[in-house]
UniProtKB/TrEMBL annotation:
Naturally occurring in which organism (per UniProt): Lygus hesperus (Western plant bug)
Gene symbol of the encoding locus: CLPP
InterPro entries linked to this entry: ClpP, ClpP/crotonase-like_dom_sf, ClpP/TepA, ClpP_His_AS
Listed name of the protein: ATP-dependent Clp protease proteolytic subunit
PANTHER family, per database record: ATP-DEPENDENT CLP PROTEASE PROTEOLYTIC SUBUNIT (PTHR10381), ATP-DEPENDENT CLP PROTEASE PROTEOLYTIC SUBUNIT, MITOCHONDRIAL (PTHR10381:SF11)
SUPFAM superfamilies: ClpP/crotonase (SSF52096)
Length: 123
């Protein structure tokens, strides 16, 4: 439920990188055992789903009915869609700024930390 933790973050500080994917979904679980135990677990998952929907609604400002529709199945979002949905507040950087070519990387023996230059174990 990482997206719920993200949505519940401090307003204005809920960030995503431009190439991220954010998914919302309903809780799931595997029930085994006697029928009465399976029923107890199913009821608990249904109650958890209701609580989660209320929390998403609280933190996104969306109606709980809309949340329920979106979490019914796995729902993946781009950062832009997550921003519009109210899960995040900012997309860090622009894609143009984050694209780099190999020629811009300065990986030389001098730029590599000494402890990572060798694959030999440190004694």
């Amino acid at each position: 439920m990482g997206s719920l933790i993200l949505a519940a973050g401090t307003k204005g500080m809920r960030n995503s990188l431009p190439h991220s994917r954010i998914m919302i979904h309903q809780p799931s679980g595997g029930a085994r055992g006697q029928a009465s135990d399976v029923l107890i677990q199913a009821e608990e998952i249904i109650n958890l789903k209701k609580q989660i929907n209320l929390l998403y609604a609280k933190h996104t400002g969306k109606p709980v009915e809309m949340i329920a529709e979106h979490v019914d199945r796995d729902h993946y979002m781009s950062p832009t869609a997550a921003l519009e949905f109210g899960l995040i507040d900012n997309v860090l950087g622009r894609q143009e700024d984050t694209k780099i070519g190999l020629e811009t990387l300065e990986v030389t023996p001098e730029t590599i930390r000494p402890e990572t230059r060798s694959h030999r174990p440190v004694k």
